[in-house]
Amino acid sequence: MKRMSFLMVLGLVSATLLTGQVIDPAKSYTVTIGAYGDLEKAYQAVIATDDFKKKFPNVAIKFQTSDFGGHHNRLTTVIAAGEQTNDIEALEVGYIAQFVQAGGLTDLNAAPFNAKKLSKDLVKFSVANATTDNGALIAMPVDIAPAVMFYRDDLAKAAKVDMANLANWDAYIAAMKKLADKSKGIFGIEHPAAVAAIPLNGGKGGWFANGKPLEPKAKFMDALTLVQKVKAAGVDGDLGAWSGPWSQAYLDGKIASIVNGAWFGGTLRTWLSPAAADGTSQWRVAYLPGKMMASLGGTYLSIPQTVPGPRKLVAWEVLKYLTNSPVAQLTTFKAIDAFPALTTVYKDPVMDEPVPYYGGQKVRKIYADVALNIPENKVSEYDAVIGGIWNGAVTDVVNGKATPAAAYDAALKKVIATIQ
Amino acid sequence: MFSMKKLPSYLTTFLLGLLALVFAFPFYYVFVLATWPSREVLAFPPHFWFGNGLMENWTSLFGRVPFATNFLNSLGIATLSTVSVLFFCTLAGFAFSKYNFKFKKILFSFVIATMAIPGFLNIIPFYKMMVMFGWINTWLPLIVPGMAGAFGIFLMTQFLENALPHELLEAARIDGVGEFAMLWRIVFPLARAGMAVLGVVTFVGSWNNFTGPLILLPDVDATTLPVALSVLNSRVDNNMGALFLGNAMTLLPLLIVFMLFSRQIISGLTAGAVKG
Amino acid sequence: MSTTVLAQRKKRMKAQQWAPYVFISPFFILFLVFGVYPIGYSIVSSFFDWKLIGTKPPVFIGFNNYVNILTIDPFFNSAVINTVILLITGSLLQHIIALPLAILLNSKLVKAKELFKTAYFLPYITSTVSVVIIFGNLFDTNFGLVNWILGWFGIEHIRWGSEDYGVKVILSTILNWKFIGWNTVIYLAGLQAIPQEMYEAAEMDGARTFTKHLKITIPQLYPIIFLAVSLSIIGGMQIFEEPFVLTGGYDNMGGPSNSGLTAAYYLMFTAFKAYKIGKGSAIAWLIFVTILGLNAINRAATRKYND
Q: Cβ contacts (< 8 Å) between C42 and chain B: which residues?
């Protein structure tokens, strides 16, 4: 019995080493994936492709999908209990920092995975986000969210404003003053807080400089000042995201612009602003004012440490396929507008295609350019708390409860009290 | 036949009716939203009347969720929980309200104190235990640990305080009715009003439980309705119509259960007269 | 003959002595099996610098978590104050409505009791997510029904969801709306047990309705009032889901000025977002002590009233 299992392990190892073939064609496997929101829909589409069927004829994929909060809650609980999770678990970028600091996920840079040679083809900043100080890669980015500006071409034309090339945020605010029209109930932007995360590169990480929180101060003051300026311009709709009046405002065409990740295009297309009969809409995409580069969202795939060894190997093959195969990356993009993390597909002809919804604009080129230029954000174990405190500071500025300087000082005090 | 004497009655009924409309409205609203296509769910001004998206939501709901399986799981877990809670908590409530025994006060305070411990964090060690017991993906962890819950014991103790007259118990004892036989003959019949409240709240709690089944029943086919429905909650692929249809279909059984138990809660003023 | 009666009575006495222990034993057996380990885990972890996940070993730090929470933590104090405000406005004051409502529903004055009772109970079974969507619409700044009605009185444009007091108003409304029916149902069931003859005797003495209820109903309901208020305290001090969903989850920590950040919300944030399970456990035990304290007051108050 003992010898048997030894032989089996030996067989497995030698098969891996000699042929690089983990998956025995004579057997059948099941890989389970824990996912949230739309991800299952995207990966189901990937599984349905001929390419996947050809490469994994004997691998079945089973999903455990929940909503965003539920999924992360379950995952942290099971990992905290030290028990076995699904073979592959999805993580939103906001949860990456904690795992980078604490562990609990398999280091994909270590043998036998050796992800390093694969991750060079992935967007740099997102790989850096998931890499620990010791060089361990705890999850692979599967999609990213380059931040862009969506704007309404008809309104811009009527106001004779060139939204595509705004030099800076002041120019943006000036433009919004022209586009917004109180008498028609048209707002420049949904809410002042919508721009708050941009100067912070999305605010997932990047809260420290040289070990000091909320530094460099100028960056954080920029964010709060920007929010205050947008508020003072009086062009916002004071609409809370994902509320009834908010979605209705989009449906009624009352919003002139929005700053968000590329994925928001999917929300516009399928829900908030469906295309006309000819497949077009008035929405266009532009770089952020001053060609600022930022990231607003993103998904990672991980293999928790509690997954048993042999299952890890099969899971890795699937994870590798989802993150590194052009077919999978482009299928995911088509299914749910989640932008590929795999940079090699940016050269695919599909990225150069005009997109009818945006009036034939080649928006994917913009996405790809932003994706390649997003700066790195260093994550820390305090990111969650600091993010929560920071959102409070933003709200205070929006509500006129505090000046940017006062809000910054109050936030810094809270941050220091929390992390010490 | 309008008479001035009945005026207070009409007036009260009218005012209570008004209040009832306010209270019932969101419930009604869930059913209204279930019939609108997803993009219309958050429409403003809101829809107050039924729409034409029912079929669309139906297809979308049943395309994504094994509804029947999840429904049966929810029903099975909630029913078994309710039955066992009613039995064991009435027993304990009977003991705490109608017997004198050593350490009674301390034991009762202990039971209540366990309710004051915020249970959110217990899920982690509890999950570990359930893995050890091999209970993951079974109904057991959602039924057994709560079978004699502190909440139910507290509720039944306070109810039985008044509902079971001492004289009746003494009379039964003199007639030679044993302590256990008394349960069936006196306690359960007279505890009906309290048991009805406990039954409803246990069923509702089990039926709406999200975190428990989410973590303890990871298998799609083993899990319950609220967890299965959460799949529909996503931002890009907006499924809100289907989500509300699922919600509405989740509410119906609760309504039926409440109606069933509800008769016991007001069986009219006559009930009091039978006792004594 | 007499010896057998005696023996029988003795046997009865014995049964009467051990029967209650048998009846309460399921709770204690289940507690030993399922409760001791998790509770012990939580007590122990509250004395450690303990990461929720990962490989870093926990470090024993004595009472540091507790001291930290009570002295330098920037959120705990306000979280407790928020919780107590919501406890009063959202959970306790409603008993003044629920009890008379139950008495009315139980009286001969009202027709179609079944229908009313069902209607009042409906909020209790409606899911939090739908409730939040509905109340979000009602309290919307620009288009909400509430501001529309206030507009008639010249009060304009209150930003309910964006101001700290507004968040508390919405939450209190939700909690009242959700639990008034539940409390009414408890009181109704309690009213069942009051013998009708007590009222008849009072009526013969010519007691007015109000006095009747003050003198008979309320003292008779004492155990139920204690129950209902205790449950409100226990539930109210652990309120999490409603503020969590309303103010947008962990990222916003209770919305404007942390107005909706309750103690349990902060507990969850600390453990599941900041990943400090040790500190989270310490918060849990502080909430526990607070609840016990409040309940002791409740017990003293209802007992005094009863005498």
A: 117, 121-122, 125
Neighbours of chain B (3+ CB pairs under 8 A): A, C
Choose the most confident range, by mean pLDDT, from A196-205, B72-81, C46-55.
Answer: B72-81
Dist CA B188 CA C251 (whole Å):
49
pLDDT at A8: 46
Distance CA A68, CA A51 (A): 29
3-state secondary structure of B50: coil
Q: Which residue has the tokens 């600022």?
A: A292
- Sequence-ordered alpha helix ranges (H) in B117-219: 123-133, 140-143, 150-163, 166-174, 179-182, 188-190, 192-208, 211-216
Sign of CA dihedral A399, A401, A403, A405: negative
Helix/strand/coil (H/E/C) assignment for every residue in C55-100: CCCCEECCCHHHHHHHHCCCCHHHHHHHHHHHHHHHHHCCHHHHHH
Q: Where is pLDDT greater, at B192 or B39?
A: B192
Asked whether the beta carbons of residue C74 and residue A417 sit closer than 8 angstroms, the reply is yes
Average pLDDT over residues A107-119: 91
Cα distance between residue B259 and residue A101, in whole Å: 52
pLDDT tops 80 at residue B190? yes
pLDDT tens per residue across span A39-87: 999 999 999 999 999 999 999 999 998 888 889 989 999 998 889 999 9
Encoded tokens for B55 = 């079929």
Q: In whole angstroms, give the CA distance from residue C187 to residue C192.
A: 9
Ramachandran assignment for B175, one of left (phi > 0), alpha (psi -120 to 50 degrees), beta (any other): alpha
Two tokens, residue C149: 């009605």
Distance of CA B75 to the CA centre of its chain: 12
**C36 phi and psi angles, rounded to 5 deg:** -65, -45
B266 pLDDT band, cuts 50/70/90, is low
Write out pLDDT tens, residues C211-258: 877 778 888 888 899 999 999 999 999 999 899 988 888 888 888 989
Q: What pLDDT does residue B154 have?
A: 95
Question: Which positions ≥6 away from B127 have C-beta within 8 Å?
Answer: A77, A78, A81, A83, B215, B216
Closest CA to C189 of B93, B267, B188: B267
**Three-class DSSP category at B197:** helix
Query: Helices marked H in C144-262 — which ranges?
Result: 145-152, 164-191, 196-204, 209-212, 218-220, 222-237, 241-246
Looking at the DSSP bridge assignments, the partners of residue A144 are A298, A339
Q: Is B121's pLDDT higher than 70?
A: yes
Report which secondary-structure segment, H or E, holds A119: helix A116-119
- Which ipTM value was assigned to this complex? 0.86
Interface test with C, best of A78, A395, A396, A416 (most C CBs within 10 A): A395
Element (H, E) at A79: helix A68-80
- Tokens, residue B220: 């799609």
Q: How far apart are CA A28 and CA A45, in angstroms?
A: 21
pLDDT in tens, C265-286: 999 999 988 889 999 999 999 9
Q: By CA distance, what is A75's nearest residue in B?
A: B215
Q: Please state, as a whole number, how many other Cβ atoms lie within 10 Å of the Cβ of residue A219.
A: 14
- Looking at residue B239, its pLDDT comes to 76
The pLDDT of residue A322 is: 96
Q: What is the mean pLDDT of residues C20-31?
A: 95
- Name the residue type at position B130: M
3 state DSSP class of B268 = coil
Q: Which residues pair with A60 in a beta bridge?
A: A30
Q: How confident is the model at residue C3 (pLDDT cuts 50, 70, 90)?
A: low
Hey, is A155 helix, strand or coil? helix
Q: Considering only residues 188 to 247 of chain B, which have any Cβ-Cβ distance to chain C shorter than 8 Å?
A: 193-194, 196-197, 200-201, 204, 208, 226, 233, 244, 247
